[in-house]
Amino acid sequence: MPSHARAPGRRRFLTIVACLVLGCQKPQPPTVVPRVVRVAGVNATGMDFDVELDVHNPNSFPIAAEAVEGTLFVSGERELGRGSANPRASIAAGATGPVTSRVHIDWANITALASLLAEEKVPYQFRGEVLLGGKTIRLGVPFTLSGELTRGQLLEAGMRGL
What we know:
The protein is an alpha+beta fold. It is 22% helix and 53% strand. Strands 1, 2, 3, 4, 5, 6, 7 and 8 form an eight-stranded antiparallel beta sheet that branches.
């Protein structure tokens, strides 16, 4: 048998031996700790939120935060809109790194927004997901951040043409 015909089997055998000796591990899921969500701007098309997350990468290879996406809810379950951003942040192997992004939420439910103008402060919840990828891993990790919108912010949006 020619030597090139044995090469794939030999490589597979050497890989298995290397894993046994060196302790190959299955990739571990990263963890996400939400830090901050703050209103960066309100206008006729929607709202901009600055979203800050800490992502811990327990693996022996770097990963990248490819996207942050989410849905904005007010006063419980009223959906105001959805949005996404592409932070392109890198998290080193075995490290925790910040992922910051500006997510633009397009208005999906203007009538719900208008009904909130009577309130001084409106609680909101940003339910999101950070999409992470790396050498052998690709997954979405959910997170939730909460805050309050003020009547002033909502009126500012209204004056700009809601």
